[in-house]
Every structure is written in C-alpha cells, then in structure tokens.
Design a protein that fits this description.
The chain is mainly beta. It is built from four helices and 24 strands. The protein has two domains: 237 residues, no CATH class; 100 residues, Immunoglobulin-like. The chain is elongated.
C-alpha cells in the first residue's frame, strides 16, 4: 500500500485560513468558488486524561469547489476543474483520509496530458508544495459510488499524516494543514449551480454521499477521515454551472442569463422561456422549462401582465431532478383581455422549493404581440 505523508512546519489556529489559502492556487483569469464546509468533531488534547470532562472541537474540515472564470462560464463539452480541500484543524491526532469524487449525472472526469489531476498542500507558514508522485491520474472505482482520489487512484490507499508536526509524537494537536486535489471535468448537459448541497440520510449521518440520481447538479466529494474515534465520511458539495453549447448566455430566444448569487456560487438561470410569442399562440399555452437541481421539488409558476392581472398559474409537487417542461394556458377571462390587446409584456415567475434548502425564485419577461 502506498501512502503519502504530508509534513507541517508550524502550528496555526485560524480556521478562516481554509478559505483564503485557496486563492493561491487559482489562475489569473478565474477563481475558486468553494461550497459550505463539512466537518467532524474530535476530543481535544486538553480533555484527554485532564480530568476536565469530555470536550470536542472541529477535527477535520472539507470543502468542494469549482474553478470559474465569471466572464467565460464553461459550456457543454468543455473541460473545467473541480476540486476538494481537506484541512486538519484540531483534535489530538494527525489525519488519514480517503477522498472520492462523485460527479452529478451527465458529468465525467476528463483527465488527459493537457488536463491532469493536480495535487498540492499548504502549511501554516504559507508555503505551497506540489505533489507529483501519488497524485491520482487514473482514479479507480471507490467504495462510495464514485472514483477514488486516494494516492495513485487506489481506494485501498490513503493520504496519511495530515497535520502531524515533524519530530513530535502522534498525539499532537494539528493546526490547519490543507491538502488540495483538483481534477478536470466535462459536462454533457447544462448545469445550474445552487448554494448548499444535496440532502439525504447518508449525508446527514456522515456515512456517504447522496445517490447521483437524486443529487441534481451538485458535485460531491466524499472523504472518509481516520483519526481518533470513528471514521466518518464527510461529503462536501458545490453546485456546478455549465452553459449550453454554442452560447454562453443561451440561445433560440430563451432567457438564460449568467449571474452570481450573494453566496459567491456562480450559476445560470434555472428558467428558460421564450422572449417573444404571438398572442394567438400564447392562448394555446405558453411553454417554458425549469431546471430542477434536486428531487422532491415543489414548482409554482405564475404569469401576469399589467392591466390584465394574473394570466395563468400552475403548481407541481414532488418533481424529480432534471428538466421540467411546463405550459401555462391563460384563463378564459385573461384570454378575452389578451385578444383585445395589440401587445403586452407578461412576467413569468417561477418558485422552486426543495426540502431543506432556501427557495429559489426565477423570472422572465415575455413579450406577447399580434
């Protein structure tokens, strides 16, 4: 079994460095967007045999990210990078970890000489060291339903000694040593990133990732952590954003603006609707598509216009992940008003509610004309 031992030269206790340390690995034209951290708790060194009772603190923290150029979001078929950062934060021992990448459906690893897997680690003194040997260029199927990012890509290996200070015994409090693994990806379909992550019992209980079929557009990295105590699986995630092929902002009259939310996670619109439609066709139903990022969603769509009021509305419950095609047919009262108008601008609002996550609201302007 091959192992790679990371060594740390000093001790640092600032948890916020997990986010700032990522900036050094970004290219000039792009930056890393990292999702929320997944963490486990370990007993502190002070409370082991100290007689002060059992005390816990964050032992290991993981985050999954996407390398994004906000001026040129990757398109379907293009290669882009995802990554995971694994930090030894506290506890009373160094860490051994076995990470595994679980891409969403329609996304695959795209490893080649031009786009290799990249591995490096940072130390509390600010140094950044590339890892050449053992960086997994041929990941094998892992035990969590994905592909292994362990040394050499072998799921029986582990990255070991993360957080251990040279010249000290194993029971040494680690302080913020970070391992980075960055891997190329290619999507066969558009992806619409959202903050947060997929929701399932395995994720909540730290036993594994969510099934790909119910994970929507989230990239997951499941990292099994071996330290003092049990061996939890920390599954961090990021909502991926990939534009349709051929147009960074969509095409064919559809509204698909590229934007970034306040959380710092770039994403495209979840709503695709016609920009313009003749009234006689709209009377038969106005078509649109909602990209649903995860299963069990509730979709509420409302169409309205000034001086007409509500034109139509519809609700769908228990919607699975994927593309949902809907059609809003005007009510009889709204149809009478539309027939008397030469043109109007209708506002389509779609609310996407997924259990355990903040609701997303998308809107589109549709010009209705004779």
């Amino acid at each position: 079994m091959r192992h790679y031992r990371l060594r740390v030269a000093a001790v640092l206790a600032v948890m916020s460095a997990i986010g700032s340390a990522a900036a050094g690995s970004a290219f000039a034209a792009a930056e890393w967007d990292y999702g929320l951290p997944e963490q486990d708790l370990e007993q502190t060194c002070q409370s082991i045999g100290g007689g002060g009772g059992y005390v816990e603190e964050v032992g290991t923290s993981t985050r999954t990210g996407m390398h994004v150029d906000r001026q040129a979001v990757p398109r379907v078929g293009e290669v882009f990078y995802g990554g995971v950062m694994i930090a030894a934060v506290g506890g009373c021992s160094d860490k051994s970890v076995i990470p595994e990448v679980v891409p969403p459906l329609g996304v695959e690893l795209a490893i080649s000489p031009a786009h290799p897997v990249r591995c490096h680690y940072t130390l509390p003194d600010g140094s950044d060291t590339q890892i050449v040997d053992s960086c997994p260029q041929s990941p094998q199927p892992g035990t969590q339903g994905g592909l292994s990012l362990a040394p050499g890509g072998d799921p029986s290996n582990a990255w070991v000694g993360i957080g251990k200070i040279p010249g000290t015994p194993a029971l040494t409090r680690p302080r913020l040593e970070i391992l980075y693994i960055e891997f190329p990806l290619r999507a066969a379909r558009p992806l619409h990133g959202l903050p947060g992550g997929p929701s399932c019992a395995a994720h909540t209980l730290h036993t594994g990732p969510c099934p790909r079929a119910s994970a929507g557009d989230f990239l997951q990295v499941a990292t099994q952590v071996f330290a003092l105590g049990d061996a939890p699986v920390l599954t961090s995630a990021i909502g991926l954003v990939v534009a349709p092929a051929g147009a960074a902002t969509g095409g064919g009259g559809a509204s698909t603006p590229v934007s970034t939310g306040g959380s710092g996670h770039g994403r495209t619109s979840l709503l695709t609707a016609p920009r313009s439609l003749r009234i006689r066709r709209a009377l038969k139903g106005i078509p649109f598509t909602v990209s649903v990022p995860a299963g069990g969603a509730r979709i509420t769509a409302t169409l309205s216009a000034r001086r007409i009021g509500r034109i139509a509305s519809k609700r769908r419950l228990g919607v699975p992940a994927g593309a949902l095609q809907m059609r809003l047919k005007p009510t009889r009262a709204a149809a009478r008003k539309l027939r008397r108008r030469r043109a109007t601008v209708a506002i389509l609002r779609v609310r996407i509610s997924i259990p355990g996550r903040p609701a997303a609201v998308e809107s589109a302007r549709i010009r209705l004309r004779r």
